[in-house]
Fold this sequence. Notes:
Radius of gyration: 19 Å
Strand content: 25-35%
Number of strands: 14
Strand order of the largest sheet: 10-9-8-11-12-14-13
Shape: globular
Order of helices and strands: EHEEHHEHEEEHEHEHEEHEHEE
CATH class of the largest domain: Alpha Beta
Number of helices: 9
Distance between the termini: 57 Å
Number of domains: 2
Amino acid sequence: MDYLELIVEIEPRDPWSEILIAQLAESGFESFVDTENGIMAYAQISDVDIDNLLKDTFLDKHQLETNQHLLFNFDWRYNIIPKQNWNEAWEKEFHPVHVGDLLTIYAPFHDKKCIIGMGVEILPKMSFGTGHHQTTFLMSKGLFDLIPFPQNVLDMGTGTGVLAIVSEKLGAQKIVAVDIETWSVENTIENAHRNNCQNIEAHCGDVDILTGSNYDLILANINKNVLTRHLPFYADMLKQGGQLFLSGFFTTDADELLLLAKKYNFKLVAMESLETWAFLKLIKN
């Protein structure tokens, strides 16, 4: 069976790339690659109605023109790839990610000689979190600064589970990984097994499925609107002196989030940025 390769460039990427991937998954797409400017999506031709693809997603320009509040730019194109070549086409876009000399995020088809520092093997399937995005890079890097490493960790919006996996490899004894998408939860479980992790519990749902207030560290690499809604929950679930890592938003949004975080007794420990993306390290007073 031949495959459809859909290439979409979006500006700004967040939150629109996440919204698009959810819509495309419902339309029959089974694999995604996070690119610098957007996403690449793959589906078997038999699973996708190309004629109605535009009507099923926000790629319908007419729909956009009638919804002026959707303020983003996009461009898209697609290719038909013969079955025997589609894996090669997908894999050539997924390169190992090096977080300095600390961490290498790689796929099963990469040569293990690429590994520098800690190695985490990820097969992303329909989830983001390969490390290619600036925010995953910043969050991963920040984990290596925690000595000793927190024992009880919550990873919200886990995606591929990469941050949960790094947390276990750094010494966490219990990690709860949560995502609203079922395929992300399944992917997290698969990737946890792939990395011989024993301490990761993956759950499907939002912040309201969680109870208790005993987390030492909360990781949340999600868009600004979700973080704004989640902050009071994070404050309730985090121990006194516990740390909160936030990313998934632009540097221009950092002040707004910091102001809200202060309302819930969070204090800024460090802030970093990569290109236009921000990372906040906070502590609960």
